[in-house]
Amino acid sequence: MKPVKVEKISTKELLIVWDTGHESRYAFEDLRDSCPCASCSGESVLLHRYEPPPFDRSAKGRYELVGAAPVGSYALQLRWADGHDAGIYTWEKLWNACPCGEHKKNGAMMAPDRK
Ligand SMILES: [Zn+2]
Q: For the chain, which terminal residue's Cβ has fewer other Cβ atoms within 10 angstroms, N or C?
C-alpha cells in the first residue's frame, strides 16, 4: 500500500491517492490531533509512561499544514504552521485512519476497494 499522490486540496484537507486507486481525504484537524510524535501522543520509556499535556486547540497555526514530505518509502512527515514537525505518519497509519470508514469495516488492510 503506497500513495501515488499527496496533495493539499484546500485549506482544510489533504488528499492521498493510493496505488490501488483509492482516494483518502483527511481533515488537517484530525491529522494534527492524531499526531504520532512522542510529545503529542506520549510514549513509554523503561516502563514509565509519559502522558502528554492536553492539546491547546486554539494555538495559532496548529491546524495549518505548511508542508508534507515523504520519509523513506514508508511514511509522511507533516509540518505545521506553529512549527511542529515531529510527527511521522506511516502509510499504514494513514491507510487505517482513512475517514471513508470502509477499511476497518472490512478489516482488510491489504485489500482496499473490495466490494
Ligand atoms: Zn506531534
A: C
Residue type, 41: S
* Cα-to-centroid distance, 113 and ligand 1 (Å): 30
How remote is the CA of residue 115 from the centroid of ligand 1, in Å?
35
Cell triple for 64: 495549518
* pTM of structure: 0.84
Say how far apart CA 10 and CA 28 lie, in whole Å.
Answer: 10
CA 52 / ligand 1 centre spacing (Å): 10
Total structural domains within the chain? 1
Three-state DSSP state, 91: helix
Q: Confirm if 18 and 95 have CB atoms less than 8 A apart.
A: yes
3-state secondary structure of 2: coil
State the DSSP code for 59: S
Domain with residue 45: its CATH number is 3.30.2020.30
